[in-house]
Amino acid sequence: MSGVHHRTATVEGHEIFYREAGPADGPAIVLLHGYPTSSFMFRELIPLLARDYHVIAPDHLGFGHSDAPLATEFDYTFEALARLTAGLLDQLGVQRYALYVHDYGAPIGWRLALEQPERISAVVTQNGNGYEDGFVESFWEGIWAYGANPGRNTEAAVRSALSLDAIRWQYLHGVPDPSTVSPDTWEHDFALISREGNDDVQLALFRDYHNNRPLYPLLHEFLRAHRVPVLAVWGRNDEIFGPAGAQAFARDAADAEVHLIDGGHFLLESHLDVVAGYLRGFLGRVLS
């Protein structure tokens, strides 16, 4: 089993933390995490991929062990986070890579693909949305209201998503056996997003999320035009991004491989071996 290295790189003056493993000359796969976590979510997946692949998993600015400047010091948007990720990959000399996206990692990854489509060898989406079909409206209606009209009245519902109870819910909801999910996960995430001033960082990204939706038709055209292999492996019980979001990829990606698993939003915590099996099989076919 290959060792995992924990490194930082300076991108646009910011220290970006990333986990790296596997042969530097092997096919690359970039793992992009979601809210409210970090590359920590991939801690057990990385060694399973590193036998054959060059794995890079960064922490987005404001998350995990990367720098987290105050929202008054940095304009937190998904466009900005994608730009920093692109800068990191350029610095590491990663020219062509498979994308693995989860949650917030999806709109960051879609921007990378649209900016430089020739660099994307494959797409793996694990509860990472790219279609209107994927939004579970009961979860998103408060975020849409806040994005459209930021203010005290709309902020309260969104701010509640920063609580320990809300993060615990994201990890446990829809998991058939919650005892398979370690409390270390939500405690770890909550500690990091509870740093002084980080609430405003997270609120800025909630406000910006609606700007990801106009990218979806461009993503669909990218999938059709470039015929990039797609694997959608999804927790079917996710009430943030529902299973229709996984099935929708088959509309635009030729021969998309879609697997709905009896789990929730953070599928790697309860079904690591299942996801890793599908992922290794897919990568072995499309990157060989």
From TrEMBL:
GO terms for molecular function: epoxide hydrolase activity. It comes from the Bacteria. Keywords: Hydrolase. Residues 27-271 form the AB hydrolase-1 domain. This is Alpha/beta hydrolase. It comes from Nocardia vermiculata.
